[in-house]
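User: Last request for today: this protein with S-adenosylmethionine, please.
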Amino acid sequence: MQRYFIDQNADESQRFFITNKEDIHHITNVMRNTIGNQIIITFKDKIVFKSEIITIENESIEIKLIEQIDINSELPVQVTICSGLIKADKYEWLIQKATELGADSFIVVEMDRSVVKLTPNKVQKKLERWQKIIKEAAEQSYRLIIPNIIFKSNLNEIYDTINHYDYILLAYEDEAKRGEVSLFKETLKKFKTNDRILLIFGPEGGFSEKEITLLNETSFNVGLGPRILRAETAPLYALSAISYENELMGWILCQQLRFTHWVAK
Ligand code: SAM
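Assistant: Here's the final one, the structure of the complex with S-adenosylmethionine:
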């Protein structure tokens, strides 16, 4: 059953209207829904309802809430993926996959060695396109939020938001080349629920010395294993590791605790 987001909090006593033009087109023309069909709505407060289509107009679709669905598809930590601007198709692939893997938000930065440069008037158009890709990936992967994306014209600009995060990890290829293999894993194990994590990745050409020096005081420079990954692969590796450590390993430990508790009784 197709899923859509409504930017309001859920309220069982209320009816709601879908007014997003792309959603209306998708519901009526692509999925050919009619009155009485059911769709899933994810609300701003992360509450999810199975809903029934009541009326279909050109500008809006009225729905009524049928049954709340209990689902939590978000990572237990909020991971922001800050990456150097890379070639368009590769970056679009990155944000789509990273959304599926649970990224909470994106910062795209024109770094010293970014091959691609964006003129100011192109930035807004690109952000709209990227946000649309993220929204579709969030709907498809049953996310409870739509990650947002911002553009920064250089790495200095993220400096004033640094204190917002509980952990800042910079994935540094040169650390990997030096054989650093433990810091990422050690830091992952320290994460607590709702911690805000900033992961920083370089563009195709990697980080400049100036960029590494800029963040030296505030970030852990970590290796992500012995292979040098593409700029669009490295964030996915990191997100997968965080999911494994916090969602699968966490679940296994919880089952083991439950089992030992049951045996001890
Ligand atoms: N041009 C760089 C070189 O040849 O050394 C490679 C840059 S890599 C294509 C792009 C980004 O991915 C890097 O800046 C880094 O953030 C990340 N990355 C790739 N492989 C990594 C690894 N094994 N450890 C840590 N970071 C890695």
